[in-house]
Amino acid sequence: MGDTKEVRKDLLKLQEELRREKSRLEMLRSTPLCKDDLAQDACTQNVAVQAVKNKTEMLQKIAATIGRIDNGTFGICTRCHEDIAPRRLEFVPYEAFCFSCQQRQESKGRDSAQSIPAGLTQPAFW
Ligand SMILES: [Zn+2]
After folding, report:
1. 15 CA distance to ligand 1 centroid (A)?
2. What is the pLDDT of residue 125?
3. In angstroms, how far is the first alpha carbon of the chain from the final one?
4. pTM value > 0.85
5. For residue 104, how far is its CA from the centre of ligand 1 (angstroms)?
6. 82 C-alpha to center of ligand 1: Å?
7. Mean pLDDT in the chain?
8. How far apart are alpha carbons 85 and 76 in whole angstroms?
9. Is the pLDDT of residue 78 over 90?
10. How far is residue 1's CA from residue 115's CA, in Å, rounded to a whole number?
């Protein structure tokens, strides 16, 4: 894993941008811009609330990723511990799951009892 320093730098930059963006949105959120137009439910305020939530989630992901860079586990799926495809990391460096775990994550909802489906865990290590 050669370029983690670069990735880390990019993440820190992104983190800073997101923080700035977030505080701007938070200001927007606390300003009741659509008081006089109650029919308009997609008003700026609601959009800002959602956006703040998104930024917060992204910031958490980024912080976790920087932590993984620091302890040397960057690029490894946090769920199945397989390598995450480099192209995927290039695209979203703060991704914590490999492609198949991501898909599983997105389609989950009924498999809560058993968080890691059979067939996914065994190979490589044993
Ligand atoms: Zn995985």
Report:
1. 24
2. 39
3. 24
4. no
5. 9
6. 6
7. 81
8. 9
9. yes
10. 29
Give DSSP secondary structure letters for 42-99.
Answer: T-HHHHHHHHHHHHHHHHHHHHHHHHHHHTT-TTB-TTT-PBPPHHHHHH-TT--S-H
Q: Give distance in angstroms: CA of 110 to centre of ligand 1.
A: 19
Residues by chain with Cβ below 5 Å of ion ligand 1: 77, 79-80, 98, 101
Hunting for tokens 């659509």 — which residue is that? 34
Q: Determine the distance separating the centroid of ligand 1 and the alpha carbon of 51, expressed in angstroms.
A: 28
Residues 6+ apart with CB under 8 A from 22: 52, 55, 56, 59
- Give 12's pLDDT tier (boundaries 50, 70, 90): very high
Cα(124) to ligand 1 centroid in Å equals 13
**Distance, CA 38 to ligand 1 centroid (Å)?**
45
Give tens-digit pLDDT for 20-74: 999 999 887 776 655 555 545 556 777 888 899 999 999 999 999 999 999 999 9
Token pair of 22, please? 């977030």
83: CA distance to ligand 1 center in Å?
Answer: 8
